Amino acid sequence: MQHRFANINAWTVGAVIIIILLFLPNLTIVSGLFTPSNENWEHMKEFVLWGFVKNSLILTAATAFFTIMIGLSLAWLIAQYDFPMRRFLKWALILPLSIPPFIGAYTYHGMLSHTGIIQTTLRDTFGVTLNPAFFDIMNLPGAIFIYTMFLFPYVYSITQVYLSQQSASLIESTRILGKGPWKTFFQVVLPISRISIIAGASLVVLEVLNDYGVVKYYGVQTFTTAIFQTWFGLGDIESSIKLAASLMGFVILILMIEKLLRGRRQYSYSTTKVRPLPLITLSGWKAAAATGYGFIILSLAFFIPVAQLIDWTVLTFGTIPMGEFMSYVKNSVFVAGLSASLIIIFALIVGNFARMVRGRLGKLLPRLTVLGYSIPGAVIAVAVVTAFIGLDRFLAPVYVWAGFSTTLVLSVSIVLLVTAYIIRFFAIGYNSIETGYDKIGTNFRDASRTLGLGVTKTFFKVDMPMMKGAIISGFILVFIDVLKEIPLTLILRPFNFDTLSTKAFQYASDEKIMEASQASLLIVGISALAIVFFYKFLERELD
Amino acid sequence: MFVAIEDVCFSYSNAETKALDNFTLKIEKGEVISILGRSGSGKSTVLRLLAGLEKPEKGRLVIQDEVLFDNKTFLQPEKRGIGMVFQDYALFPHLTVAENILFGLFRMKKAEKKKRLQEVLELVELQDFGKRYPHQLSGGQQQRVAIARAVAPNPHLILLDEPFSNLDAELQGKIREDLRDILKKANITSIFVTHDEKDAHILADRIVRLKDGRIDFVGRPCDMLDTYRQPGMQQPSTKGFVEKNLIGIN
Ligand SMILES: Nc1ncnc2c1ncn2[C@@H]1O[C@H](COP(=O)(O)OP(=O)(O)OP(=O)(O)O)[C@@H](O)[C@H]1O
Ligand SMILES: [Mg+2]
């Protein structure tokens, strides 16, 4: 007798194993909440906890506010008005995402420092010496500025696409009713773009909570820095687990607020054919103001730091031996390529499982794995290390039997780092793959099966070739994210294993800002290329 | 009896009501059956159940003495030898016409494959189109490729889901004739779904009419003739139509 689900089983087993592996380490964090607390923890709770909770709150709230202001105003300008350079600005305003905030942070610090371009120009050319405190960016407001500049594109891009897709009649009818542009903005545009603003802003908030590079470099105490300090400074992993658990609680709270704010209401087009919004052409000073505004933001968030990085790279070129530099490149490409490939393979398995199963559980289970992206790197680092040390302890007899000289094998290997990447970035790859599956639907799969091919053969002959676009874009997105990643790489890499981003961070931390530029520029260059690629790719897809 | 469908019940997992309720039908070899019914009446569901793309709650399907499903067997779609032409054709966009047709012929030897490909291309009169990709074909040509692909592996039974719905009126007429010729020439037992009564009258040996997941009429097209008004009338209002036929059955 043929078993009812013979084919489905292999995929189900694979998918369930992947989902558990992705989710399990986070459970170690939750379990950490219930271990008895030690002195450190009591001390921290009493004296310092509130300090970095406050900092984290201020950072996230202020950054969310400013990214919404800048992102939404730019999105509105681009979506509704025509002015010189609009077409260029439309996609160029996404470019700041190619600069990881910590690179932006040390670049701005370098530019504003005593020996940096701004103070030296003022001194040497204009003979002006200002109070150095005026140029001090290494503080909380400085960190807010850095986050705003390099993260606002999340709000901008999501909102801009959303506004451009809105039916013209919706906004036109407001105008016909005699409302001016400001009233239109506040009474129509703001409410209808609420969902996209919330989506963009929550990405920003999660990025801020995840960040380690900026706050560490600027000396601002947050949840993330506290986790690492307790762990390495005090050697107290139990307390750092407790901190991580609190941070996770904080993130879950934010996700819940997001859900609540989004509400159940979905704004969707009531007509199937959406007429794009006709642009209003600006002229005179209004046009100049619009173009100027776009360029000021773009310069602060992209052109100026990139120019500075290029300048430093030219100045220091050759001081880092080529062989050494190439080994960082090789390491970066290796871990990013490996993690991205594994993530895509896992995502394909989980995605195929998700569309085979019916019912709620099948839809919910894959969603669980996506949580990883909301969990800050510091938490994942703690979770993965705890899990791997446990695993090594469990495997110790095997190591002894195999003649290893140590019983810490997996927890000091590259496996640890790659596992952490997979947990953190699985959602990025999965979203892309899931969209791919959604786009091809189930009809081609069904057709293939009625032609005699089983689920697995169908997957290789129909699904995979048809999802080439989704696979490539998912791979590139994960690759770039791993390339830029800082806390996990810094903490979990094996001894003597350096990547472009860890090296850039180390040079910058040692005040060798110029030496850091070469690796940084390469990261920014690759990311910017990917963004341009996606923009063109998306444009073609939309046609 | 060639095909026997007995007491099939089914509901979608997220739905309250039954999509199909006690569906029973026996089909002779070579017979062309039409399933007629309004949108949402369960027509596609019948085909999906027969093809094995959905799992019935209860019921039995036997084709040529082989049990495809009953309360302890469920044969996967790829093991059933049932061909299907999808509502939107589902031609693989990354494969050429020839590759689409060869897709289901993987069990044959090379020479055999080539011969069969030529045969079915001739059957649907598309000999010169083998190298084209689906998007380079007209709607009618795509439909014929979909039929050729489904017919090629010699299925016991072929299912067609609204084969004419994507075509303009003129093309519909032409394709309808073509389909009838193709089905009869190949002597394939077939079930096709339509919401257009005219299709059913021209093509079918027997008509099954569905309403809310239940059969409310089975019979020859001529038995339904009184409701068939004039050529060109697309969809007679179902209300009067159903009453007459219910009376007809009683
Ligand atoms: N995947 C699904 N999940 C839940 N309900 C479904 C699903 N597919 C169909 N249904 C429901 O089952 C019923 C029968 O659907 P079916 O697709 O068989 O109708 P149909 O007669 O083919 O309609 P049409 O002429 O519009 O194609 C409908 O009420 C439909 O809403
Ligand atoms: Mg249908």
TrEMBL record, chain A:
It comes from the Bacteria. Signal peptide: none annotated. Its main location: membrane. The keyword GTP-binding does not apply. It is a multi-pass membrane protein. CDD domains: TM_PBP2 (cd06261). InterPro entries: MetI-like (IPR000515), MetI-like_sf (IPR035906). The chain crosses the membrane at residues 12-36, 56-79, 91-108, 144-163, 184-206, 241-261, 282-308, 328-350, 370-389, 401-423, 470-492, 519-538. It is found in: Cell inner membrane; Cell membrane. Keywords: Cell inner membrane, Cell membrane, Membrane, Transmembrane, Transmembrane helix, Transport. Residues 53-262, 329-535 form the ABC transmembrane type-1 domain. The keyword Lyase does not apply. PANTHER family: FE(3+)-TRANSPORT SYSTEM PERMEASE PROTEIN FBPB 2, INNER MEMBRANE ABC TRANSPORTER PERMEASE PROTEIN YDCV. Belongs to the binding-protein-dependent transport system permease family. This is ABC transporter permease.
From TrEMBL, chain B:
GO terms for molecular function: ATP binding. The keyword ATP-binding applies. Keywords: ATP-binding, Cell membrane, Ion transport, Iron, Iron transport, Membrane, Nucleotide-binding, Transport. It comes from the Bacteria. Residues 3-237 form the ABC transporter domain. SMART domains: AAA. PANTHER family: SPERMIDINE/PUTRESCINE IMPORT ATP-BINDING PROTEIN POTA (PTHR42781), SPERMIDINE_PUTRESCINE IMPORT ATP-BINDING PROTEIN POTA (PTHR42781:SF4). This is ABC transporter ATP-binding protein. It comes from Planomicrobium okeanokoites.
